[in-house]
């Protein structure tokens, strides 16, 4: 069995990207390649052999710590677990008791513990984690990433006891980290923002599509407002605006431009909020209200919409409406969206910018 | 002792906002008032009496479940815990054994468990959590929010066993949720984006401020790029761009405009990324390189910067540079920032939009 070939190929099979602390290209993210996906949906294909770290000094754990109950992990051990130590030498062990946690190197001197090969027995985990940390420290490793699935939540207090902190969580898992070196952690931060969209939709009769929400603050009671909502995971701003309008009112639209955006802080769970105000063109007229969130929806004459006291008396709403009116009069340039691919990260992404034009009318649509 | 007054005033003392599923005002967030802060730094002021929920049917917990070891929680109980049951009647109990978890109502029919008054004993917590869930279900409650501090990670597996899922986490805590009603959870999602900034800085000699990073991907090796980085918690885009330039190069700048932004997905931990390209004006010229992240920094003649093959050969970089050049020639409108306050949420926030102008030159700076 050529164990060496497993060691050189297995890691790339599982490579996914996450962002480091800074941007490494002109504009794109610093793509931090790590050995295993952080996605809660990511499934590590079993049957492939994974690069692991050697136990320091080949220490044997005693059965007292429950190592013999590793269970399915033994399978990998017994069918050819290989140890890639600091010396770079490849050795194989067929004993059940010599183990550290299955893990991968990342490109930044860190270690990513394989979430699909965690011991099921908490005592085994506790012993292996301690041994692994000691080993990684000796190897000069920096950040340790430990993703614990929801169904293995009994391992959380064990990791915390060893000095791990929470990094982020999604419904199905919590990610913990441990920063080994002296000094502040250089690990990338958790997501910091949520993103909302609002859609200005105006028809040929100069009527704006407006809604009243079922759950509104007392301050906005009676206000007819534009449809708004949060964008979904991995959704585009332009898609999200069209979707929200459709969901709340049944109206089909097409995206024209982002005309402005708002940045606010300490909104939800201490996080920040970016809200993109979009101009949309209606493709249908018949309203069909979403009963769950919306109390009422209608086409409202533009003048009537603008003259609502709650809009006229509020500096922010007034400014946004002014922009909207300027845009209608083609005295304003919004940002349209363009798909771009950069060879530096290979990703398709959306670049929002004005159509460059020498005329007064900046509108390219 | 007027217990009723405590019940009517204590909740507002602790009110903070978080975002619900949709936006409730014209553009601002749906501010979901809940009874206790989600901030890891938030400290519930002890000594105030908190509204709690009654145990169903005034059930007494037995000592077998460890309730007598609630510890500091007994203080509140013994000095005047009041129970606000479904009937709305106010009753007081001075027994140590009749308890559910201290919690607050939120405005959406949900419950927020007080993270500062969790039992320290896991057995007590397990018994109280089960009792509380049963009680909240009977009361028709919807979303339950349970914030567990890092130092009480031993409670995590207990909550998961009762059916809680992770919602989000920050270094010092993990937030778990439980959605009681039938159907999909209507609780707001976790933060979905990280936000980066890049600064185009050009001096009077038509030289662009550029850097080479220490940790760059092989694809960008040798590229002279603009300074970039992530914005900090609650930081403004315009502040973040100025800070990153200063940190990486030592150059002082002032913010002019956002000239474009990029939206990419599945970047870090399955999250999305918004990157704002900013135009900055230099206020100093002497470069002082940040040795930690930056290998080199310099003022580079604009033509030389543009003609770098790595920029010319990449459609995204090329487009951004084209926008930059158009903006320099005043043939492009960027978005400048304006502080606005809306009375609907009382928040100061930054609105980014073009200066409305009838001339070709959209530049208002």
UniProtKB/TrEMBL annotation, chains A, B:
Keywords: Hydrolase, Metal-binding. Residues 192-327 form the Nudix hydrolase domain. GO terms for molecular function: ADP-ribose diphosphatase activity; metal ion binding; NAD binding; NADH pyrophosphatase activity. Pfam families: NUDIX, Nudix_hydro. Belongs to the Nudix hydrolase family. This is Nudix hydrolase 8. It comes from Cajanus cajan. The lineage of its organism: Eukaryota, Viridiplantae, Streptophyta, Embryophyta, Tracheophyta.
């Amino acid at each position: 069995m050529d164990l060496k070939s497993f060691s050189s190929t297995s890691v790339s099979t599982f490579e996914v990207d996450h962002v480091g602390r800074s941007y490494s290209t002109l504009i794109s993210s610093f793509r931090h390649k790590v050995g295993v996906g952080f996605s809660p949906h990511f499934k590590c294909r079993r049957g492939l052999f994974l690069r692991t770290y050697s136990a320091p000094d080949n220490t044997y754990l005693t059965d007292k710590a429950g190592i013999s109950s590793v269970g399915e992990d033994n399978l990998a051990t017994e069918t050819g677990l290989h140890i890639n130590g600091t010396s770079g030498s490849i050795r194989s062990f067929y004993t059940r008791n010599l183990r550290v946690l299955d893990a991968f190197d990342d490109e930044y001197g860190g270690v990513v513990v394989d979430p699909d090969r965690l011991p099921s027995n908490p005592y085994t985990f506790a012993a292996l984690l301690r041994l692994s940390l000691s080993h990684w420290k000796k190897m000069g490793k920096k950040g340790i990433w430990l993703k614990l699935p929801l169904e293995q939540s009994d391992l959380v207090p064990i990791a915390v006891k060893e000095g791990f902190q929470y990094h982020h969580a999604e419904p199905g898992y919590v990610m913990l980290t441990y920063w080994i070196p002296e000094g502040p952690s250089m690990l990338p931060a958790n997501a910091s923002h949520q993103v909302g969209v609002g859609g200005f939709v105006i028809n040929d009769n100069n009527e704006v599509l407006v809604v009243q929400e079922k759950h509104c603050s007392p301050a906005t009671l009676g206000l007819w407002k534009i449809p708004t909502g949060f964008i979904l995971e991995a959704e585009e701003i332009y898609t999200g605006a069209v979707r929200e309008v459709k969901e709340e009112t049944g109206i089909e639209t097409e995206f024209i431009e982002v005309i402005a955006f708002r940045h606010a802080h300490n909104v939800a769970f201490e996080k920040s909020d970016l809200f993109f105000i979009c101009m949309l063109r209606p493709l249908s007229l018949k309203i069909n209200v979403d009963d769950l969130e919306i109390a009422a929806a209608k086409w409202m004459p533009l003048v009537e919409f603008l003259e609502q006291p709650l809009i006229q008396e509020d500096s922010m709403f007034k400014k946004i409406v002014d922009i909207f009116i300027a845009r209608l009069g083609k005295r304003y340039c919004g940002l349209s969206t363009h798909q771009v691919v950069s060879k530096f990260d290979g990703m398709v992404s959306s670049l929002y910018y004005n159509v460059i034009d020498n005329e007064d009318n900046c509108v390219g649509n």
